[in-house]
Amino acid sequence: GTSRNASSGAHAAVVLYPLAGAGRNLTRLARDRFKRRFPGLLAGPFRALEPEVAAALMASGKPEAPAKLDWPELVSFAFAQHPFEAALPVIGDLLKQTLSRALREDRLTDQEGAALIAKALQYRDWSETATLLGATGKAQVIDRLREAVRKLIQAYGPVEFRKERLSEPPR
Fold first, then answer.
1. Least enclosed by CB within 10 Å: which of 4, 20, 130, 133?
2. 56 has a pLDDT exceeding 50
């Protein structure tokens, strides 16, 4: 569920196991709805959910390709030309579309996945995110976010934004 149990403090879970065709349809609809809604719920009722748990849940989803217009702004953030706050909406879009696949394919470290979830999807504050990651502060968290976005660009971006070694933004 989206709220924690009053006595245990744990979230409830519903497990569906289809026994017939109608059950398979219901299971598919419920799974698809969860995958669509879960990233948005991370900023609200699941804000305090451990990023590792969120990463495991997101790894079960299927991504879509981001719109081509998002990539230049993502590259600008990844190479320190845009501040995090200005790029947050497009980073959120990128994560909703690629994070589950990136986690399944081990394209990001656990720390990078946790940083992206905690800051870009759960909107945790800088000091809380730094503590969670064992970082010294905001600057180190931003460095990890930039590196993670660079990896996502290299893995899933259009060809013109991918390079053998993504070391500078395309011109």
1. 20
2. yes
